[in-house]
Here is the input.
Amino acid sequence: MEFLSLNILIFAPLIVAGIILSPLFPNDEIIVRRFAKGFAGLLFIYSILFMIFFKPHEVGYQFKENIKLFSDANWIEPLGISLSFGVDGISIILVVLTTFLVMLALIASKKAITTKHKLYYSLILVLTTAILGMVTSRDLFLFFLFWELELIPMYFLISIWGTGKKEYSAMKFFLYTFFGSLFMLAGILALNYFHVINTGVSTFSIETLTYSRHYDIPFMFEALIFFGFFIAFAVKLPIVPLHTWLPNAHVDAPTPVSMLLAGILLKMGGYGLIRFNTQMLPEMIKIFAPILIVLGVINIIYAAFVALVQKDLKLLVAYSSISHMGFVLLGLGALNVAGISGAMFQMIAHGLISAGLFLVVGVIYLRTKTRTFSQLGGLGQVMPKAFYFTMLLALASLGLPLLIGFAAEVMIFYGAFTSDSLEGFVLSNQVMTGLAAISIIITAAYLLWMLQKVFMGNMFEKWQKTSDLTPHEAIALTFLSIPIVLFGLYPEGITSLFLPFVDNLVSHFTL
Amino acid sequence: MEFFINNVWVIPALPLWGFLLILFGRAFNFYQNKYISLALTVGSTFIGFIFSIFILLYCINNPETNTRYNILWLDAGNLKFSVGWLVDNLAAMMLVVVTSISLLIQIYSHGYMEQDKGYHRFFAYLVLFNFSMLALVLSTNLFQTYIFWELVGVSSYLLIGFWFDRPSAAQAAKKAFIINRIGDFGLLVGTLALLFYSLNWWTSTQNVLLEFATLGQAGSLALANAGPVLFGLLAIGLLLGPIAKSAQIPLHTWLADAMEGPTPISALIHAATMVAAGVYLIARLYPVFELSTQVMTIMAWVGAITAFIPATIAITQTDIKKCLAYSTCSQLGYMVLAMGIGAYSAGLFHLMTHAYFKAMLFLCSGAVIHSLADQQDMRYMGGLRKKMPTVAYTYLIGTLAISGLLLSGFWSKEAILSSLYTQGKGLLLVIALITAFMTTYYMFRSYFMTFEGEYRGKAHFHKPSKVMTVPLIVLAIPSAIIGFLFSGSLKSIGIESFDRFVFNVHAIHGDHGGLFLPICSLIIALLGFLLAGVIYWDKLTSLYCSCFKNIQKQITPLYKLSINKWYFDDFNNLLIKYLILPISEFLSIFDKYVIDGLVNLCGLSTLYKGKALSLLQNGNVQTYLVTALLSFVAIIMVMILIYIV
Amino acid sequence: MDFLLDIKTAMLPEVIITFTILVCSVLCFMLKQEKQKFIYFISLLGVIISLISINLLAANKIFTGFYNSFSSDFFSILMRFLILSGTLFVIVMTKDYSFKFKHRQGEFYLLILIATLGGLLLSGANDLIMIFIALETLSLLSYALSGFLKKDKASNEAALKYLIFGGASSAVMLYGFSFLYGITGHTNLTEIIAYLTNNSSNMMFSFALLLTIAGFLFKVAGFPFHSWAPDVYEGAPVPVAAFLSTVSKVAGFAILIKFIGLAFNNTEAIGITLGLVALLTITVGNFMALNQVNIKRLMAYSSISQAGFVLIGFALLSYMGTSGAVYYLISYLVANLGAWLAITIFDTQTNKSLISDLNGIAYRNPYFATCFAVCLLSLAGIPVTVGFVAKFYLFHTIVQMGPAYLWLLIIALLNTILSLFYYLKVVKAMFVCKGADNGSKLNFNIGVLSTSFVFLTVLVVVLGVFVSPFINIARYSAVVIDNANTSAPVSVK
Amino acid sequence: MEVLQLLFFGMFALVIVVSALGAVFCKNIVHSIVSLVITFLSISGIFVLLNADFLAISQIIIYAVGITILLVFSIMFTTTKDDNNLWIAFKPRTLLAFVVAGSLFILLMFNITDKFTDFNKNPKLFITKAPKESTVKTLKEQGTTPIIGKQLLTTYVLPFEVLSILLLGVVIGAAVIAKKEEIPPC
Amino acid sequence: MELGLAHYLTLAAILFCTGILGLIISRNIVKILISIEILLNAVNINFAAFANFADLDEAKGQIFAIFIMAIAAAEIALGLAILIACYRNRHSVDIEDYTSLKG
Here is the structure.
């Protein structure tokens, strides 16, 4: 049990990235890729060990770590910042999801990446450290640090290996998220300020600020803090008015990068909403829950309608992920166990499905060099394996039962319908969930239209000799479909991990 | 006997097991031989058939069976969703119907799909459909039904779009799935509402959520909580599911297009089993529907209209499968009509009989198409009775059955008509009789066009193989005698009438209204036969006289109406083209230019501000000094102002 | 009054520097041209010795020398340490750059040393006249330094502009001094503070204070008096630009804090005006830098906006604010020196200073590009570097001052995005844009310049991780100034 | 005695203002230098009035003589044929210059006279302290030189020394910049 | 009304403003340097006045004025050296020609 230390899990990718970048590492592409893939596999297995030894029913953080730099005091003693990590209900599953998707992204980046391999693989590993750090940090400053750190590798990954107007979208992504994170910084500092005023001790640790906060912050400022955190996560989990960076970033990012972007980075918004907006400021979430629900429904319907008429395959998948993340918001707004665990489950489900969809889009783009629907058609006859995998992913994405998407959607629907967070508003919960339910029709429409347009129907003669899936892509896709089917059949596997956490969380509201 | 009841789960588990075996077998290319896939499919269905026979027998001799077994599948706080299986008379009956028909169809489709390169894929989908249908039949609660309801929809999507290289098949598959999805939407919102309004019932009594057994009490509580209007809406929402699945009027257009799939599929899914699932769900949800009379009348009227309109369309159909599809649609209308007026058992009885003879009719048409090298248009057939007598005679039996001339269709349709009569629903009775007349007319029209007269087509004819004709014969037996068997007249020999068997739950008991009705329906059927014969049967065309011709001319507008399938399809396309697509077009433009525009705007504005400011930096040190001193003086002014204020 | 005691306790580095100045000036005249390189070693040695001598000074007590005209407390020791390390790196820069001065290299080092002496004295000066003299040494010498490349038109023009602008602003400062002298009758800061504590300050005093602060704003390139900086940084030789942006700026801040200290106890009018000036500095610096093409001009505007951030710390008029500003100053110095070293390396070998010339350099010299990128990202405030912690700590101090300063925080936060944009533009040019493939490979082999550049980048990252010792230093020095300003003069000799 | 002093002050002040304006607004550079010299001389007169005699002398030596010679030399070096029309730049900044100068003057007066209220000769904002009679005695006999001398070498000894280093630096700098480049012999 | 501090301060203020005026208006660089000198002289008058009225004992103002004179001399020397160097390169004394560094 003791060999399981979060420090190794988080900082190992950083060290390996350093090793890869160092001059004495051979510059040959195959060695670099094999080494990176091997390491990612090991990391995944290591994170699985964490999941196995994780005791869901224990409240609070587990595998706690507090790194002291050469002195017994915390990292930055004067400000009360500690280099502390820990894993609890919702972050353990995101850690495993991250390592899993990174492994798959590396497997799938055999053909997608043709130049500057050492730089590419080290940037991906730095990105992993940033995300793992962000999910497991027990300190607000540390969370903010990793939140910003994750922007740099993403910027380079999109702008160096991307296609189309990659600099524009990389810059837009960077500045947009940075703009959001500034509001979070103001929130963090304000939280610390009120802590200093009431208790005289300056601290940034999440535990003290959530559990042992006996003083109450004046309503106006608490609303501002809530708003600050909410804006940062609204940009990240794209909520409609602030989502325009996602289509650009996705269209121009190389396949493995957009797999990671859709797979994990969008979840950071959701994770943040649960960890900071719901857990840390319970009274405020009760007041703002209606807004969450309304935004969630707008997100779902708006993105679904826009996805109907997209001309570019990747744009369609991007808008579909916006629509699915709207479900997370709806679940969160419900403020009951079903809703929040549904939101959590939807994040994992969407992570796996959208990573798969982007991988397939990458596969198609690699062979046909185009993503516009007008030029694609009838690839099913030439690429049967790809067709079957896409069909599985599309069906999972539109919420086919016995696949992972369904359990999440069902929980969110039942949770949102039976919750009373919209008491006294003209549009009650029931009507809003009804509106959201329309999306299952539209999602089915645009996904099946995509399947029909790309794979079915008669084939363009120029796609005559396109080759089917390479072993690399096949492995990656099978790795993805196993959890999709497995956790679709047996959702308890995932929900048992974070249900105690959600029960404890919801108990704060109901009392 | 107990053994079969206790592990009922074997019936759906075997097809699932078969599906996984075929899937992984083919994925890793363990075997190429076609027969292994065939053996797996047929074997699993056969064992299922044996099990269901025993279960049926068990249910017959102790009718009150209601064994249930539930496993907790998804726990989310106070909502505990569970999955399991329930055996009662209704389930037993459906099990037998589904397993028997799919068994025969699987054997038949071996012959039909022999040369097709997607053989294994076909049987994998078939077995998957079997699994989901059987699991749907056995489901204990509404949540589990919803799961397998969608699974059935997906397998029908996969099977319709089996030959996906044909654009029309792909389009039909997508259309079928989306329309089913609309139904699922209704079902989902209905279930959510039902659960919401009866939540304290479920949580207080600690039993499985939305279980069919206790749905009655939950429904009444929901009615009390929600009030009649909302409860009505809720019930209509629930009804929307079956309307989409059993191709009732507003959402029926997909059934005709579903004929793009291979014929055994049309037989299995779009005639016998899947479309019947809608009626089965109505049966399951009967305690809820019963509570509001308005919903029952709506259901009745929907059923009536669905019976009438497709019948008019089927009259002018030239494609044999399309004709049969529309006839299925109208027969389903009958069943829903029966359900609507409370004739619960009559509807189910008609469901059972219809399943058998419609499956047989489709298989015959499949044999015809297969032998004429995929020629589906009746105008290029004719005179096939001489070439393939077995298929012709079975087709004749089927036509007689469906048109209610003494074979099984007569009994079930008569049961519906009698309950209509006893309920005193005059108008509905009239509509039903007119539809019966039209049914006989188009069925015999299709019989005469394909099997009588001389061969009009050019395609080279080859004899259908044995493996295709044997299932036809086997199916002919039940479609002929099953109506009579269960009509209750053999009470003496111990075979209870169908309604007694299925009926134990509901007491609406229609007594037989004497002989007047059967005679009159027989007369109507004969009239239809004569009319079809006069027009299409070469022996009777001599009677064709001028009076028919001017009638032909007057009804040309009606003719045009029926040819264009009452413009439903065009209405749907218009709806999508001028309502949904423009909205999303507008939204996507709005998204790209307005929201994105705003973001770019504020980006560009900062750049321009930068340029404007750098104009000030024009290199002359004296301008620097002036700007510096001016702003310095301004700052002093500000300071002084603050100082004074 | 034995001066030896004063020298040993308070003024050791200044004395060592003056000694090296004298030795160098003699050598300049004696040695012939090609042996001028020897002066480089002498001046380097002098600076290193004075750096070492600094920690001999007693850091915990306040020592005043020469009739209280010079006081060395912990804050001035810290500032002097920064100034001397800045000069060390500037001298290292000039070693490679000096081939451009043909046969006058010796004088360049001499002028740099005298200017540093001015800076050192400025950071400890405690008397109005002493401040004026030290400031003028620093400014006059930098005018001469920036005009050093006689043949180059740009350098001449830069020197001319710098002189005119500097002359005007020092006149304004002097005018402020005269009024200060007029109101209080003393020229010694401690006496002025004493005078202020017992009789209330009037508007005239704040007016005089603002006039003097105008002079320091020139030195620090604050808002109203910033427009000289871009032209001079572009025109002057690169080491001089580095000298101006680091050493003279730190010295300016050192003395500016003493004067703001005067305003600690009286009206908050000065606080708000200073806050306004600070914000305007940041915004003007950022807006102008957005579409710059020349890397040196970009660095000039970036140093203006960074100066704005430090000014915010001072505008908070409290010891917390000053500690934030001091820590920000340390991080700014390290990152800026790194960036200027990179520009020197690039300029000496390719003699070009446009951003577009940097295109695709990351694939010819990966290490040079990564180090330069790290320095720039530290200036922008990106996580692992010291810049991030400095910005975080500064915003922390702003928030600690309570909700009254919310407007200050919001505008500063928004400006970080603007600053991010133009720093990223340079990094983008290096890593993303395709360079002209015939671009020559910079020889980035092991030399004094490249090792010091790599050392600075490593320092930037290390300081970003080992943070608490430096925050404590900043806090202690802020406390020292705070009670130096408010309490009575400690010891009048 | 007071009247005489006032008379002298008025005369000097008038000359200073006129010649300063002349130095700034003369078209020909030589005229402006001459008016500059007149200003310097009259300023030294003012110093005498303020019984700062050492200051007056040094003013004459440094400004009137030293700097003027420097200016004249530099004019000789840099005379170009069309330099005489370099009068005033007719650009928007001249207008702004008048605005700045005017507002600055008003601001100064506003502050000195403490919001235009206190017009008497010794505004109470500034300290006025009569000198001790010992200093008055030394003033009468030896003037301000001993006071300045004593101060220079006691309280202000550090600035004095640093000034020397500064002047050294400026001389070297100016020489390096101004020297004409001759190709080195070797 | 006889001679007081205010008169000197007003005189210094007038001189200061003319210096600033000259600084910004003149196109000839020598004139700009001249106006810097005028500025410094204005400050000298200020210092001398305060010294005379406030503390004649130590006459700190006068010492300050002396230092200012020294620095002013140094500055004008440096200014003219730079002017000559500029003239040698661009053969012009007009400030309008020295605007190549801009943007």
Q: What stands out?
A: Residues 568-616 of chain B form the longest helix (49 residues). Residues 568-644 of chain B form one domain.
